[in-house]
Amino acid sequence: MHRFLLFGLTKDNDILKEGMVMMRKTGKTLLILFIFTFFISLFLPESTIIAEERFIEADIKLDEDAEIIESEFTKIQLKRLKKEEPTYTLDIELPFFMDKKLDSTVRKHIKHLIEEFFAISKGNVSKERPGNLTVKANVYLSGKDLYSVVLHEEIYSGGANANQQAKVWLADLKDDKFVVQETIFNDPEEAKEIIRPLVKEALLNSEQYKDYILEDELEKWMEKEEYHFENMFIRDGHLVFIFNKYEVVAGAAGMPEIEIPISEVEHLINPDWYKRIDHAL
Q: Strand, helix or coil at 12?
């Protein structure tokens, strides 16, 4: 009986000793990891650490941080959000609509753009190579209570080149809605067959762009089935087609704009829409 008790105590004692040894080893491991992490942080560039903190803490409030800037149109105001930090800069112009649905659409787009910028920039920018998000907004009177809103967006997230793209809305303030551009035509398919070749011809003949044409990319755009004239807006009596950087021309040419006189395609436009567009001509 005593031997069994002694054996049990001895066994418990051995387990306790093993546990203490394991704790010592674990403690040493944690200490080594802490020291290693501490020394690594000493050698990391300060800008890298700041970048991580800035992007984690970034919280952009469009209403509080943006200020109203001058606009020639009373029905569409422009706001500007400018924020400068050691590792990034935001310079964003955004249109402001009185109608909540229209305004919500624009806000969602801008917020998504900011989130995307932070996501792709995190860990790739520094004080020496800061990131940048720039959005320039242009508003054009396109007809009676009809406006074209064009955003020129540029993102630099630490890579070799900045990415440039456009976002276009056709805002019908008569019915407070954004119009899908193809709906202004009698027959969108016929309009594509006629207008896209005109745009191609204008690009090929343009003194500004003809030496930068990416032929394969241009043909892809010409043959694109799911095309709804989403890059088209109306300005000064022209249908204007804006392309993203590298979409149809080399990067050195930027974001090309090609104008087609409305008078050349008047027969393709729905009469009701043409009356409204003609009001601004």
A: helix
Q: Which of 124, 117, 127 is nearest to 153 (CA)?
A: 117
pLDDT tens over the chain, length 281 residues: 444 444 444 444 554 455 554 545 555 555 555 455 544 444 444 444 344 444 434 455 666 667 888 788 888 999 999 999 999 999 999 999 999 999 999 999 999 999 999 999 988 999 999 999 999 999 999 999 999 999 999 999 987 789 999 999 999 999 999 999 999 999 999 999 999 999 999 999 999 999 999 999 999 999 999 999 999 999 999 999 999 999 999 999 999 999 999 999 999 999 999 999 998 77
Angle between helices 215-223 and 188-205 (to 10 degrees): 170
Name the burial class of residue 110, with classes exposed (0-12), middle (13-18) and buried (19+) by CB atoms within 10 angstroms of its CB: buried
User: 118 vs 73, 113, 132, 252, CA distance in Å?
Assistant: 32, 9, 10, 26
Give residue 83's identity as a one-letter amino acid code.
K
Q: How far apart are CA 58 and CA 243, in angstroms?
A: 31
Q: Look up the pTM and report it.
A: 0.79
Dist. CA 200–CA 213, nearest whole Å: 10
| Token output for 234 | 């109306």
CA dist., res. 3 & res. 57, Å (int)? 65
Closest CA to 269 of 187, 164, 154: 187
SS3 43: helix
Q: In whole angstroms, give the CA distance from residue 244 to residue 239.
A: 17
Helix (H) or strand (E) holding 148: strand 146-156
Q: Is the four-CA dihedral 229, 233, 236, 240 of positive or negative sign?
A: negative
Phi then psi for 256, rounded to 5 degrees? -70, 150
Let me know: does 251 contact 163? Beta carbons within 8 Å.
no
